[in-house]
What we know:
Shape: globular
CATH superfamily of the largest domain: ATP-grasp fold, B domain
Amino acid sequence: MGSKILIIVGGNISKLDKFKDATLRLGLDVTLASLNDINYEYKNTSEFSLKIENKDISDFKLIYIRMIGKRIEDASLLVDYAHKNRIKVVDHLYESELLLPSSISKAVETRKLIEGGVVIPKSFYSNLTRVIKYGERNLDYPFIIKSTSGRKAREVWLIENEADLKEKKVILEELEKNGMRFFAQAYIKASQRVRVLTLGGVAIAAITRPTKWRKKIESKLTKDNPEGIRGKLDPIPYVYKDISEKASKAVSLDICGVDILHEDDTDNVYVIEANAAPAWKLIEKDWKFSVEEKILEWLNKL
């Protein structure tokens, strides 16, 4: 038999470097690999063997897909093979979804949050023309337009007024020609954002950071903390623990980074994203523990 746990990533395997040290410290039998190295060979027989480099994937007990990136075809092949060989796959959303799961599509993710009863900002998904019309007619300025890929907040635009919309529309139209899809979303007046890391459906850490547009918000919180607050939330406030665990369950993610906005002048709390491949560098910095070790300990118990 091969290694018990396979941890795999789309693209360069260096993205998994921190798992190497954690694996050694815990003494676990783990293989780290890239989706780039998936292969199979036809040998004039009906027997099919999918391999990662030269190891048969059927020898693994469990597969953790850290992130897919652009390797959708390889990931679908891997998950299908895992199903047929009764290998457990994390996140468990892959138990039922092979093509464009919610780990890739923000449109699917948002639909799942809505169906799961998770509170999100008022939102509308469609083509750019309809998204703009919806924003103009149904949302107050400023409002948000963001892409369905949502790459680390880079594809999020604050529309401040009609003139700003006209200017940004030119940029957005070019992006739509290349296949991008969009949401219109209500702007939440929150000067702080919260990131909660959930593992196995349980919130294990939370941090807070200033929001991108906090300087546009006038509130008691911004007056008392002009530079914003940076640090861990320990213990995790129940309101964030509850909504993050509900969100991770709604999108079927075992390892999830839930981004939350808490409006400054109200008690309204909104989930803006539930990420399947969350960055956890800041969580490790604030909480002083290895997220890789936490994940490996949890995987080893499955």
